[in-house]
Protein backbone atom coordinates (compact mmCIF):
# COMPACT_ATOMS: atom_id res chain seq x y z
CA UNK A 1 0.00 0.00 0.00
CA UNK A 2 1.43 3.44 -0.89
CA UNK A 3 2.51 5.79 1.88
CA UNK A 4 -0.15 8.49 1.54
CA UNK A 5 0.00 11.64 3.71
CA UNK A 6 -3.77 12.26 3.76
CA UNK A 7 -4.99 9.32 5.83
CA UNK A 8 -5.10 5.56 5.70
CA UNK A 9 -8.86 5.21 6.20
CA UNK A 10 -9.56 6.19 2.60
CA UNK A 11 -6.96 3.73 1.32
CA UNK A 12 -8.37 0.85 3.37
CA UNK A 13 -11.72 1.32 1.67
CA UNK A 14 -10.12 1.71 -1.75
CA UNK A 15 -8.09 -1.48 -1.42
CA UNK A 16 -11.16 -3.45 -0.35
CA UNK A 17 -12.98 -2.25 -3.47
CA UNK A 18 -9.99 -3.12 -5.66
CA UNK A 19 -10.04 -6.70 -4.36
CA UNK A 20 -13.81 -6.84 -4.92
CA UNK A 21 -13.30 -5.69 -8.50
CA UNK A 22 -10.57 -8.25 -9.22
CA UNK A 23 -12.68 -11.09 -7.80
CA UNK A 24 -15.37 -10.44 -10.43
CA UNK A 25 -12.95 -10.98 -13.31
CA UNK A 26 -12.81 -14.23 -15.29
CA UNK A 27 -10.56 -14.95 -18.26
CA UNK A 28 -11.50 -16.56 -21.55
CA UNK A 29 -8.21 -18.19 -22.47
CA UNK A 30 -7.21 -18.25 -26.13
CA UNK A 31 -3.42 -18.25 -26.40
CA UNK A 32 -2.92 -18.46 -22.65
CA UNK A 33 0.06 -16.11 -22.63
CA UNK A 34 -1.42 -13.49 -20.25
CA UNK A 35 -3.37 -15.62 -17.75
CA UNK A 36 -1.94 -17.27 -14.63
CA UNK A 37 -2.62 -20.99 -14.62
CA UNK A 38 -3.15 -21.39 -10.87
CA UNK A 39 -4.29 -18.01 -9.59
CA UNK A 40 -6.58 -16.54 -12.26
CA UNK A 41 -10.18 -17.59 -12.95
CA UNK A 42 -10.26 -19.29 -16.32
CA UNK A 43 -10.91 -23.05 -16.17
CA UNK A 44 -13.42 -23.13 -13.30
CA UNK A 45 -15.59 -20.47 -11.71
CA UNK A 46 -12.84 -20.13 -9.08
CA UNK A 47 -9.04 -20.20 -9.56
CA UNK A 48 -7.51 -23.65 -9.85
CA UNK A 49 -5.60 -22.83 -6.65
CA UNK A 50 -8.93 -22.62 -4.83
CA UNK A 51 -10.50 -25.67 -6.47
CA UNK A 52 -7.38 -27.81 -6.02
CA UNK A 53 -5.56 -26.37 -2.98
CA UNK A 54 -3.54 -29.51 -2.25
CA UNK A 55 -2.14 -29.60 -5.78
CA UNK A 56 -1.42 -25.89 -5.56
CA UNK A 57 0.74 -26.51 -2.50
CA UNK A 58 2.68 -29.22 -4.33
CA UNK A 59 3.82 -27.26 -7.42
CA UNK A 60 7.24 -25.73 -8.01
CA UNK A 61 5.91 -22.27 -8.84
CA UNK A 62 2.58 -20.49 -8.53
CA UNK A 63 3.33 -17.93 -11.23
CA UNK A 64 3.22 -20.00 -14.43
CA UNK A 65 1.01 -18.78 -17.25
CA UNK A 66 -1.43 -21.17 -18.89
CA UNK A 67 0.72 -21.32 -22.03
CA UNK A 68 3.75 -22.32 -19.94
CA UNK A 69 2.12 -25.43 -18.52
CA UNK A 70 2.46 -27.75 -21.49
CA UNK A 71 3.31 -28.24 -25.13
CA UNK A 72 1.42 -29.08 -28.30
CA UNK A 73 2.01 -32.59 -29.74
CA UNK A 74 -0.02 -33.73 -32.77
CA UNK A 75 -2.50 -30.90 -32.13
CA UNK A 76 -3.03 -32.10 -28.56
CA UNK A 77 -1.93 -30.21 -25.45
CA UNK A 78 0.35 -32.30 -23.24
CA UNK A 79 0.14 -30.76 -19.78
CA UNK A 80 3.08 -30.55 -17.36
CA UNK A 81 1.96 -29.27 -13.97
CA UNK A 82 5.51 -29.01 -12.58
CA UNK A 83 4.97 -30.72 -9.24
CA UNK A 84 7.78 -30.46 -6.72
CA UNK A 85 7.14 -34.01 -5.47
CA UNK A 86 5.09 -37.11 -6.22
CA UNK A 87 1.32 -36.88 -5.85
CA UNK A 88 0.43 -39.80 -3.58
CA UNK A 89 -2.17 -38.60 -1.06
CA UNK A 90 -5.78 -39.57 -1.77
CA UNK A 91 -7.01 -35.97 -1.70
CA UNK A 92 -4.27 -34.96 -4.15
CA UNK A 93 -5.14 -37.78 -6.53
CA UNK A 94 -8.82 -36.80 -6.42
CA UNK A 95 -7.99 -33.17 -7.18
CA UNK A 96 -5.64 -34.26 -9.95
CA UNK A 97 -8.44 -36.28 -11.57
CA UNK A 98 -10.82 -33.31 -11.44
CA UNK A 99 -8.22 -30.96 -12.89
CA UNK A 100 -7.08 -33.25 -15.69
CA UNK A 101 -10.66 -33.98 -16.72
CA UNK A 102 -11.26 -30.25 -17.13
CA UNK A 103 -7.94 -29.67 -18.91
CA UNK A 104 -8.54 -32.54 -21.33
CA UNK A 105 -11.75 -30.84 -22.45
CA UNK A 106 -10.12 -27.45 -22.86
CA UNK A 107 -9.22 -26.13 -26.31
CA UNK A 108 -6.79 -23.34 -27.13
CA UNK A 109 -7.31 -20.78 -29.87
CA UNK A 110 -3.78 -19.81 -30.88
CA UNK A 111 -5.04 -17.21 -33.39
CA UNK A 112 -6.80 -15.02 -30.79
CA UNK A 113 -5.83 -13.04 -27.71
CA UNK A 114 -6.98 -13.84 -24.19
CA UNK A 115 -10.19 -12.09 -23.19
CA UNK A 116 -11.41 -10.60 -19.90
CA UNK A 117 -14.95 -11.51 -18.85
CA UNK A 118 -17.08 -9.86 -16.18
CA UNK A 119 -18.77 -12.52 -14.06
CA UNK A 120 -22.48 -12.48 -13.20
CA UNK A 121 -23.57 -9.83 -15.70
CA UNK A 122 -26.50 -10.45 -18.04
CA UNK A 123 -24.29 -11.42 -20.97
CA UNK A 124 -21.25 -12.39 -18.88
CA UNK A 125 -19.24 -10.05 -21.08
CA UNK A 126 -17.18 -7.32 -19.50
CA UNK A 127 -17.67 -3.89 -21.07
CA UNK A 128 -14.13 -3.71 -22.40
CA UNK A 129 -14.84 -0.72 -24.66
CA UNK A 130 -16.10 1.42 -21.77
CA UNK A 131 -13.33 0.23 -19.47
CA UNK A 132 -10.52 0.92 -21.92
CA UNK A 133 -12.13 4.21 -22.93
CA UNK A 134 -11.90 5.57 -19.40
CA UNK A 135 -8.35 4.39 -18.81
CA UNK A 136 -7.14 5.68 -22.19
CA UNK A 137 -8.82 9.06 -21.64
CA UNK A 138 -6.80 9.76 -18.51
CA UNK A 139 -3.60 8.28 -19.92
CA UNK A 140 -3.96 10.42 -23.04
CA UNK A 141 -4.85 13.61 -21.19
CA UNK A 142 -1.80 13.28 -18.97
CA UNK A 143 0.51 12.06 -21.77
CA UNK A 144 1.38 8.84 -19.97
CA UNK A 145 2.48 5.86 -22.06
CA UNK A 146 1.24 2.65 -20.45
CA UNK A 147 2.00 -0.90 -21.51
CA UNK A 148 -1.01 -2.81 -20.22
CA UNK A 149 0.19 -5.76 -18.08
CA UNK A 150 -1.31 -9.22 -18.05
CA UNK A 151 -3.48 -8.63 -14.99
CA UNK A 152 -5.27 -5.86 -13.13
CA UNK A 153 -3.32 -6.66 -10.01
CA UNK A 154 -0.05 -5.98 -11.84
CA UNK A 155 -1.47 -2.68 -13.11
CA UNK A 156 -2.38 -1.60 -9.56
CA UNK A 157 0.96 -2.67 -8.13
CA UNK A 158 2.98 -0.72 -10.69
CA UNK A 159 0.70 2.30 -10.91
CA UNK A 160 2.51 4.69 -8.55
CA UNK A 161 5.73 4.34 -10.57
CA UNK A 162 4.11 5.61 -13.78
CA UNK A 163 3.87 9.20 -12.53
CA UNK A 164 7.16 10.68 -11.35
CA UNK A 165 6.21 14.35 -10.92
CA UNK A 166 5.47 15.63 -7.42
CA UNK A 167 2.57 17.76 -8.62
CA UNK A 168 -0.54 15.68 -9.07
CA UNK A 169 0.89 12.63 -7.30
CA UNK A 170 -2.00 12.41 -4.84
CA UNK A 171 -4.53 12.47 -7.66
CA UNK A 172 -2.59 9.97 -9.75
CA UNK A 173 -2.42 7.43 -6.93
CA UNK A 174 -6.18 7.69 -6.36
CA UNK A 175 -7.04 7.47 -10.06
CA UNK A 176 -7.13 3.64 -10.52
CA UNK A 177 -9.31 3.21 -7.43
CA UNK A 178 -11.72 5.89 -8.66
CA UNK A 179 -11.90 4.34 -12.14
CA UNK A 180 -12.49 0.79 -10.93
CA UNK A 181 -15.08 1.91 -8.39
CA UNK A 182 -16.94 3.95 -11.03
CA UNK A 183 -16.89 0.95 -13.38
CA UNK A 184 -18.22 -1.26 -10.59
CA UNK A 185 -21.12 1.15 -9.95
CA UNK A 186 -21.83 1.42 -13.67
CA UNK A 187 -21.80 -2.36 -14.04
CA UNK A 188 -24.38 -2.71 -11.25
CA UNK A 189 -26.62 -0.08 -12.86
CA UNK A 190 -26.54 -1.93 -16.17
CA UNK A 191 -27.13 -5.36 -14.67
CA UNK A 192 -29.67 -4.63 -11.94
CA UNK A 193 -31.34 -1.38 -13.01
CA UNK A 194 -31.07 -1.60 -16.81
CA UNK A 195 -29.50 1.87 -16.87
CA UNK A 196 -26.47 3.08 -18.78
CA UNK A 197 -24.51 6.33 -18.78
CA UNK A 198 -22.20 7.71 -21.44
CA UNK A 199 -18.41 7.52 -21.35
CA UNK A 200 -18.22 11.31 -20.85
CA UNK A 201 -20.50 11.02 -17.82
CA UNK A 202 -18.38 8.24 -16.33
CA UNK A 203 -15.23 10.35 -16.75
CA UNK A 204 -16.90 13.20 -14.84
CA UNK A 205 -17.91 10.76 -12.10
CA UNK A 206 -14.29 9.61 -11.75
CA UNK A 207 -13.14 13.22 -11.36
CA UNK A 208 -15.92 13.90 -8.86
CA UNK A 209 -14.99 10.89 -6.77
CA UNK A 210 -11.35 11.94 -6.55
CA UNK A 211 -12.39 15.50 -5.70
CA UNK A 212 -14.60 14.16 -2.90
CA UNK A 213 -11.84 11.95 -1.45
CA UNK A 214 -9.25 14.72 -1.52
CA UNK A 215 -11.64 17.32 -0.06
CA UNK A 216 -12.61 14.96 2.75
CA UNK A 217 -8.95 14.33 3.58
CA UNK A 218 -7.84 17.99 3.48
CA UNK A 219 -10.76 20.47 3.24
CA UNK A 220 -8.62 23.59 3.55
CA UNK A 221 -6.44 22.61 0.62
CA UNK A 222 -9.40 22.38 -1.77
CA UNK A 223 -11.87 24.94 -0.42
CA UNK A 224 -10.93 27.40 -3.21
CA UNK A 225 -11.52 24.88 -6.01
CA UNK A 226 -15.07 24.52 -7.31
CA UNK A 227 -16.31 21.27 -8.79
CA UNK A 228 -17.05 23.01 -12.11
CA UNK A 229 -13.48 24.32 -12.20
CA UNK A 230 -12.22 20.83 -11.49
CA UNK A 231 -14.12 19.26 -14.39
CA UNK A 232 -13.26 21.95 -16.93
CA UNK A 233 -9.62 22.47 -15.92
CA UNK A 234 -8.76 19.04 -14.52
CA UNK A 235 -5.25 18.82 -15.96
CA UNK A 236 -4.35 22.46 -15.29
CA UNK A 237 -5.65 22.32 -11.70
CA UNK A 238 -3.81 19.22 -10.57
CA UNK A 239 -1.00 18.37 -12.97
CA UNK A 240 0.37 21.35 -14.89
CA UNK A 241 3.30 23.25 -13.34
CA UNK A 242 2.33 26.57 -11.67
Task: Give me the secondary-structure topology.
Layout: H1 8-23, E1 25-28, H2 48-51, H3 53-56, E2 70-73, E3 76-79, H4 90-104, E4 115-118, H5 128-141, H6 152-158, H7 169-192, H8 199-217, H9 219-222, H10 227-232, H11 234-238
Antiparallel strand pairs: 1-4, 2-3
Helix pairs in contact: 1-7, 7-8
- Kindly provide the radius of gyration, computed on alpha-carbon positions and rounded to a whole number of angstroms: 21 Å
Strand order of the largest sheet: 1-4
Share of helical residues? 40-55%
Number of helices: 11
What can be said about the biggest beta sheet?
2 strands, antiparallel
User: What proportion of the residues form beta strands (DSSP E)?
Assistant: 5-15%
> From the structure provided, what is the oligomeric state, counting identical versus distinct chains?
single chain
How would you portray this structure in words?
The chain is mostly helical and about 240 residues long. It folds into two domains: about 25-115; about 125-240, no CATH class. Helix content is about 50%, strand content about 5%. The longest helix has 24 residues, at about 170-190. The radius of gyration is 21 Å and the shape is elongated. This is Reverse transcriptase zinc-binding domain.
Would you summarize the structure shown here?
The chain has 242 residues and is mainly alpha-helical. Helix content is 49%, strand content 7%.
